[in-house]
Amino acid sequence: MAVEKNGGIIQRFRELEIEQRQGDEASLRSLEQQMREAGASDHDGRPKFFRALSLPAPTPSAPPEPKAPVVDYLKWALAQHVGWLLAYDPGTRLGTEPESLHQLRVATRRLRAVLRTARPILLPAWVTTLEQELTWLSKLLGPARDLDVQIAHFTEESANLDARDRKLLAPFIAHLHTQREAVQQMVISELTGARYVELIRRLQQATQAPSVMESPLTVRDLARREFTKLRKAISRLTPSSSDTALHKIRIKAKRARYAAELARSSVGKPASRFIKSTRAVQNLLGLHQDAIQAERHVRQFLKYSTSVRAGFVAGRMAERQRQRRKLVRQGIKPLFKTLLKRGKKAWG
Fold first, then answer.
1. From 180's CA, which of 72, 107, 209, 216 has a CA 20 to 30 Å away?
2. What is the CATH number of the domain that holds 95?
């Protein structure tokens, strides 16, 4: 990334992210070592927009004391996620960095999860309308995120093909970019509108004074409720469970993890171990869902390019995704076992 001022470049930097899709941990560590020897260093945690403008990253506040009232945990969690939502707002508007929109959407999802977890202690009318507005924002960002994922997927697939087959993908990738530009204009229009501004105002107000009811529930009780839902869903799985069932498990794992993060400073190491296990399950099931979405993208490619050769290329791409799904199903059972064991220890 280059930062310009008055016609001149005043700063340059590059950010690289390594994501393990295949291979082993040793290969990942080896690659990290090579990058460090070439001069790479750890990321400082700031969004690119903040780094480009030499702004400090939003400083997270310390979590409440272990015996603090549940409302203190709620306000603390809301403040963290609202802060990150605002941090990634500028990059989302610029539209030059897919990660900004992705992180804005993640912050939105986390806010919805926190409100969902805390629903038993919140005034129904207050939380329902706030959840509805966050759902609206998530749906607004969804099409742009889907296109970013498609573009990244087919760009990666293209790099693995020979020159002849790469030409088949080029027009389709260009078509996706055109669609993404059109969607970006819609996103900008909504983010500059009164509805979004009012949502931000309500979220900032919620970090200071959420509408709560008197309740004997503790933050640990709230986290236990989400774990119980996850445990029951896992118990209903069979070797032949559908892809949809696995996706629902992933959603419940996210919710259980976010609830556990809310209660971590109260519960301590058992919660941290449970969070680690839910993240492992979530990540592996995420690969499964990515493979399903990739097959959907391949079908869209076939609608766009109908030649015989395109069908052959699409078949190869689809087969790779089916193999990814098979490997996930083979490897998920031990992770479920560890998650349930740690969940029982953390939440009883």
1. 107
2. 1.40.20.10
- Secondary structure of the chain in HEC code, one letter for each residue: CEEEECCEEEEECCCCCCCCCCCCHHHHHHHHHHHHHCCCCCCCCCCHHHHHCCCCCCCCCCCCCCCCCHHHHHHHHHHHHHHHHHHHHHHHHHCCCHHHHHHHHHHHHHHHHHHHHHHHHECHHHHHHHHHHHHHHHHHHHHHHHHHHHHHHHHHHHHCCCHHHHHHHHHHHHHHHHHHHHHHHHHHHHHCCHHHHHHHHHHHHHHHCCCECCCCCCHHHHHHHHHHHHHHHHHCCCCCCCHHHHHHHHHHHHHHHHHHHHHHHHHCHHHHHHHHHHHHHHHHHHHHHHHHHHHHHHHHHHHHCCCHHHHHHHHHHHHHHHHHHHHHHHHHHHHHHHHHHHHHHHHC
Domain for residue 123, yes or no?
yes
pLDDT at 290 over 70: yes
Q: Which of 278, 237, 243 is nearest to 113 (CA)?
A: 278
Cβ-defined contacts of 302-306 (< 8 Å, 24+): 304/171, 304/172, 304/175, 305/168, 305/171, 305/172
Quick: pLDDT tens for 216-267: 999 999 999 999 999 999 999 998 999 999 999 999 999 999 999 999 999 9
- Looking at the structure, tell me whether residues 94 and 203 fall in a common domain: yes
pLDDT digits (tens, 9 = 90+) for 46-59: 766 667 766 666 66
Q: Dihedral sign for Cα 240, 242, 246, 251, please.
A: negative
Instruction: Give the distance, in angstroms, between the CA of residue 328 and the centroid of all CA atoms in the same chain.
Output: 19
Q: Is 221 exposed, middle or buried (0-12, 13-18, 19+ CB in 10 A)?
A: middle
Are residue 233 and residue 340 in the same domain, yes or no? yes
> Looking at the structure, do residues 93 and 197 belong to the same domain, yes or no?
yes
